[in-house]
Amino acid sequence: MDRNDLMVKKRTSVVVSIFLVLVGGMTGCAVQDVDWSMTESEAAGTWKMEQPDGDVILDLDVDGTFVAQEWPIGLCSPQVTSLSELDWRVRTDFGGTYSFLNDEPYLGFLEPTDSGCGGVSFYFWKGPGGARWIQFDLVPEDGSEPTEFVRLDRVE
Predict the structure, then answer these.
(1) Distance (Å) of CA 110 to CA 15, 97, 123
(2) Calpha distance 86→102 (Å, rounded)
(3) Which residues, 6 or more positions from 48, have their beta carbon under 8 angstroms from its beta carbon?
(4) 134/124 Cα distance (integer angstroms)
(5) Statement: residue 4 has pLDDT above 80
(6) Ramachandran sector of residue 103 (left: φ over 0; alpha: ψ -120 to 50; beta: rest)
(7) What is the pLDDT of residues 103-124, one digit of tens each?
(8) pTM, 2 dp
(9) What is the dihedral of CA 73, 79, 83, 88, to 10 degrees?
(10) Are 150 and 49 in contact (CB under 8 A)?
(11) How far is CA 130 from the centre of its chain?
(12) pLDDT tens-place string over residues 45-55
């Protein structure tokens, strides 16, 4: 095998590797997405994030009300901008109403009625096997796309 054959083999293996990474990335994006089909009756229920300092719980009722328990203050509006700023020890309980924003079934909003916690928007997500969760994005101070979030999973 001469040097040109080795170069061709190397280039081929690099191209194949790049292709596999791209296909894997596209496949990963295809299996989870905002939950376009979420309905108010499906949204109703208990959503939870387990934490060493105590579980964060969000109960959504079919009548459009909610109760949040052990809610990190940093997730109230205005929110922290990164997970490193979120102090899981400083929490509150509160209730209020929730709604879908702009008639979009995947985008929700919590409007507290009995606390100092401001309104909070969130997304319903759906992943592999039909798993659903609520995602609270932490928007960076510069307004760029969020890369960090807090996720509450549906309690079955």
Answers:
(1) 47, 6, 11
(2) 29
(3) 55, 56, 57, 58, 152, 153, 155
(4) 5
(5) no
(6) left
(7) 788 999 999 997 778 888 999 9
(8) 0.76
(9) 0
(10) yes
(11) 15
(12) 999 999 988 99
CATH architecture of 33-154: Beta Barrel (2.40)
Residues in the chain: 156
Please give the full DSSP string across the chain, using - where no structure is assigned.
Answer: --HHHHHHHHHHHHHHHHHHHHHHHHHHHHH-EE-TT--HHHH-EEEEE--TT--EEEEEPTTSEEEEEEEEGGGSBSPPSSGGG--TTSEEEEEEEEEEGGG-TTEEEEEESSSSPBPEEEEEEE-GGG-EEEEEEE--TT-PPP-EEEEEEEP-
